[in-house]
What does this fold into?
Amino acid sequence: LCLFSLDRVEEARKAAKAFRKAHKKSGLWLSRFNVAEGKHAMRSGNYKRAKSRFEDVLAASSEESIQSEAEYYLTRVLGKEGKREDHLKALLAFVKQRPDSEHWAEAALELAELYEADADYAAASKFYREAIERGVPDEDRPGVLARLVTVHRNLRLFDTAIAYARRLVEEFPRDSRATR
It folds into this structure.
């Protein structure tokens, strides 16, 4: 798995092939190899291969966590391919069907950004708020709070925009967005 992360693809494929031969009944690990290879292909711009790997995982694995991961990255591939409507639909389905996924907050943030770009500030606000409530990583929280300030200002909900600005300043006083 690390070999894919290190972009040592040929070595990774050989190691995965050897593992498949030695451990034919280890479906979970084989699925993890496919996810790792799919993520590498996505980073490399080979969306067709990435999509194929993630679809293989969805077809072969019954493990919820690995299926959830493959499904999330499949939605990302749609976004990378520029299929905006398909990407939006897939993200909406993902957040609805996979509420316990470790990628839920990331998917909600992607949805919020798409809605904000479309000037659907109410929907953007909903997903930014849910992402904050559901556990956005600490390093992303100041940015999400700043986006909530902007979205609520665009909605002309000045009281809540001010409340989010205060929260940003209180929770992250050293962040550059808190001083603007």
